[in-house]
Amino acid sequence: MANVHFGFQKILFKRFSYIILWHVGIVTFTLRLVASINTLEDFFTLSWIKNLFVSNTLAVALFQLFLSAVFIVTESKQYLRVEHRIDFLINIDSIDKDVPFTLKEALATHNVPLLQYLGFYDLNIISQFDGARRKQIFSLSYPGGHPHVWKSISQEAVKLILETNSQLEAITLPPKPKPPEMAAKYSTADEVYFKMRSLSQSHFLQEKMPAENYVDISSKIANFLKTIRPVSFMLEELKEKQLVSALQHYQALSLACYSMANLASASMAEDRFGIVQQDLSVIINALLKLYVTLNKLVVVVNRKPNSSILQIKKHLVHVVKSSLYKLAIDFGPYVKDLSLPAEDEKLFTNFILFKN
To answer: Could you tell me which InterPro entries the record lists for this protein (predicted)?
Structure first.
């Protein structure tokens, strides 16, 4: 592994040196062009304009290449580390001190989306093509006999699904009005001066406005502000920003849905201990929640059409439906044994009967 990193660094050093030499050459060529000008008429000669255009074009192209090379360096270093270190390492408690990441840690790196995406990409490959590594997922720890590997991986995948669902729900569902505070059983006067004659007149007591009136007034003001065009435009822009923020990890989310469905399907033949069956209802519940929320998202998206958001939304609907259909085909005959809530069981039955 050290040889791979050393060779990669040598290649990057050569690329940077070539780019710097090209920049030096372009600067030298431009200075010679400037030095060749003796009179004002030399500025308008065809050869000088042609050479200046070529030098400027090369300078801009090389500067763009320099920026792309810097991006390649930063991204490739992370990619090499993840691809060569996380790949073929699925154990959570790694004994090898040279290994910076395990698969579980890669899935949990929410602050580094590239590592998280590569972790779910690796998990998707495992769920479809790598039976040897799936065997490690379906294994129990020794000593203890606990499914630590499966628990850590499934929890991170379900967590990503539910977090995205909660963010989308906050956008699609209107905010719930605060319930009015319940009035006290007795007024302050009754509590302190119970069974005592009040010496003050009733019209001197200042009556308080009920809490319901405050809620009605605030809702009316909010609805009136929404009718004003600039305010409504700003609110729509804010919702679109929130939607983009919620869907920014849609690629990792898609891989998480596919991975959970494929692992659950493979567990029918490969899970000797039945560890996946315990969390099957949690996976189905998370996917059904996301499916319902994405269907409600149509109203928000159609208010202001955005091609990229629409494409991402259609892609996620396709991913979630495919995952649910895969689970419905494999576990349809056992739907009564999954201990699903009544609503989820009814919706999942529609997938079993191919009604969605």
So the answer is: Nucleoporin_prot_Ndc1/Nup
Helix axes 148-172, 250-270, angle to 10 degrees: 140
Q: Name the nearest CA neighbour of 125 among 77, 80, 83, 78.
A: 83
How many Cα atoms sit within 13 Å of 296 on the Cβ side? Answer: 17
Buried/exposed code over 284-303 (b: 16+ C-beta within 10 A; e: otherwise): bbbbbbbbbbbeebeebbee
The H-or-E segment that residue 161 falls in is helix 148-172
Q: Say what the pTM is.
A: 0.61
Question: For residues 314 and 248, is the Cβ–Cβ distance under 8 A?
Answer: no
CA distance 106 to 122: 10
pLDDT tens, position by position, 67-96:
555 444 444 444 434 444 344 344 444 444
Q: Is the dihedral of CA 66, 67, 72, 77 positive or negative?
A: positive
The encoded tokens of residue 1 equal 């592994």
Considering only CA atoms, which of 257, 223, 243, 221 is closest in space to residue 299?
A: 243
Please tell me the distance from the alpha carbon of residue 264 to that of residue 267, in angstroms, as a whole number: 5
Helix, coil or strand: residue 316: helix
Residue bearing tokens 């000088």: 48
Give per-residue pLDDT as tens, 202-235. 544 455 555 555 556 666 666 665 566 555 545 5
10 Å Cβ neighbour count for 144?
A: 7
